[in-house]
Amino acid sequence: MTGIEWIKAASVLGAGMSVGFAAIGAAVGEGYTAGKANEALSFRPNLVGDILKTMLVGQAVAETAGIFGLVIAMLLLFSPIEGKSVLTAWAYMGAGLSMGLSAIGCGIGAGLPAGTACQGIGRQPMVSGQLSTLMLIGSGVAQSTAIYGFLIALLLLYKQLPMGMAIVPACSMVGAGLCMGFGGIGPGIGEGMAAMEAVSAVARNPLTVGLMTRTMLVGQAVSESTGIYSLVVALLLVLSV
Amino acid sequence: MEELGRIHQLIIPFFGHDLTFNLEVIIMTWIVISILLLFGFLASSKKGVIPGPLQVVGELLVAQLFALTEDALGEELGKKYAPLICALFMFLVLSNWIGIVPMMHEPTKDLNTPLSLGLLGFFISHYLGIKTKGIKAYLKAYVDPFFFMMPLNVIGEVAKVVSISFRLFGNIMGGSIIILVISYLVYNLILPPFLNAFFGVFVGAIQAFVFTMLTLVYIAVQVK
Amino acid sequence: MDIMGADLVKAFACLGAGISMGLGAIGPGVGEGFAAGKACEAIGRNPQEAGLLTRTMLVGQAVSESTGIYSLVIALLLLFVV
Lengths: 241, 224, 82
Hints:
The complex is a heterotrimer of chains A (241), B (224) and C (82). By secondary structure, chain A is mainly α. Helix content of chain A is 85%, strand content 0%. Chain A has one domain: Four Helix Bundle (Hemerythrin (Met), subunit A) (Up-down Bundle), CATH 1.20.120. In chain A, helix 2 runs parallel beside helix 4 and helix 3 runs antiparallel to helix 5. The longest helix of chain A is centred in the N-terminal third of the chain and has 41 residues. In chain B, a hairpin with a 2-residue loop joins strand 1 and strand 2. Chain C is an all-alpha fold and 82 residues long. Chain C has a single domain, classed as F1F0 ATP synthase subunit C (F1FO ATP Synthase). Helix content of chain C is 85%, strand content 0%. The chains are: A mainly alpha (241), B mainly alpha (224), C mainly alpha (82). At the A-C interface, helix 6, helix 7 and helix 8 of A face helix 1, helix 2, helix 3 and helix 4 of C.
């Protein structure tokens, strides 16, 4: 095989991994939201408008991680490969791994508060506005590790690489992809769990909404720290090439 | 894109060693400090029963942070250490927000700033722990469940400094790189203001609050 | 393509740093999120104790983060020392 064919193969593989892994997380998150919305509707059939609206907004947020995966897959499939170094193949694999794996956690994490918000609206229809705002903030923050995965994927895609094959840059680019990819899973789920409990607490006791927003944001910021360490290590690996 | 990961450095030879200064960080830190001094001067110069706009902001910050500190450390120590917590929070918030202004860079984007602030918190908390509990009770906390746990306890204390500083550094640096890369890819159209609002204002404020809160909690753990 | 032994070691150190930090980040992320969630639930039950609960949450999270710190230290050692 020639270099061009290797790059082509790697771009196809990277695109598949990117959109495939990302779809797992987004689908699980959206399914959880829809399930909880159905559960809430069975108790309160007259609130169908509010619950359906919250469910759709929450699913749209959970879908964002999947859309990031799709964007990276498109960029991988349609980027020009003539005259590129063989190392590009490894960079493409790293980009697919980084985006795909990190989107798993964030899809699930964004789905958890959305489902609980649907349930909470069934319990307390009067505060549906506050519940959806809190849900949007929580699932938006839970997306941040997917954004870091997106960033590493973009850096790997558009990096100027030296010509010729060498094993150290190749391994460090795949390592950067694995690092940010796996590193995004845990914080995404964890931040989603924090947001889920905050939304359910507000649904139980709506007066605590300000206090709960503050506690949730502090807790999420601390849970994100391992994702940040992964970002630091991945950036060191990418920028050292 | 070419300026990614580049640091402007001033290297001065000093008796066979090289002293390295990150010029950008030093200048930006001075700018932040001078803005804070100016704010403090203007907010407190014309004190009145009917407060001016700057005095309201200053009073709000000081009252909230004093209440937070006294809640964590108790009445007496709270009064003493609240100015430190106030100064830390205001410095961090302004440092994280100053990157929104074009041509300005966040001093916290460089690991040296968060690390030195983390070390400051580390030394203050241990000093206070020895002072309030006495050296015997302080050392006893390290062999807490039984003697073999000592290495883990020591590593745990050092890990606090690493975690608190890397969290702030990584968030701010990651945010600024995301803004740079995505602005470059969309030719500075539409997206950059929203990215600046999220990563500059929102994340910056939250991380400043978390850093301050964690310093306070670490001090409170040592004191009690 | 000739691969020298030193290059191979360096390459696998890079790969190992990535895998170490990546997998090491999963557990603390989920665990700290669990702690934050339970703290939110507890504050919802008893808002008067919010200060105490937030401090306890932060201390617990700092302890559960230590394995993440170990991963970070190992990753940095692999990157800069090996």
